[in-house]
Specification:
The structure is a single chain. Helix content is 68%, strand content 0%. It is mainly alpha-helical and 122 residues long. Helix 1 runs parallel beside helix 3.
């Protein structure tokens, strides 16, 4: 595992993190097709950064930390914004907004994974 910071996979991960406020802004301004495009681009860069890291042996300690953080930030941002009633035009479609209890469940699961008990490897 490399200690290099500036690698193509890390740049892609940071780019994915930059896409999060753009995605949220597009949802707030009801530009749903563009928001979906940004979300798909984030997903593609997520797959691409992992592929490049393994293929060209550019795995790094920073990437190991940043990649899951970027994933969780996008997930949380998407669920929180899609749970807000004011984001959508009226009348609301039946499947939107996402019920707040679903958002809390998804976020709680990730919090429990992060702060939950760890098993020792010895």
């Amino acid at each position: 595992m490399s200690s290099r910071i500036i690698t193509v996979p890390n740049v892609l991960t940071v780019f994915r993190m930059v896409l999060i406020p753009i995605f949220v802004s597009l949802l707030f301004y009801q530009r749903f097709v563009l928001a979906l495009t940004v979300f798909v681009a984030a997903g593609l860069t997520d797959g691409l950064d992992g592929l490049l890291a393994r293929r060209f042996d550019q795995q790094s300690q920073l990437g190991t930390i940043l990649d899951p953080i970027a994933d969780k930030l996008m997930l949380v941002a998407a669920f929180v914004v899609l749970s807000l009633r004011g984001v959508f035009p009226h009348p609301l479609p039946k499947h939107l907004p996402i019920p707040f209890w679903v958002t809390i469940s998804v976020i709680s699961r990730d919090v429990f994974i992060i702060v939950g008990p760890r098993q020792s490897t010895s």
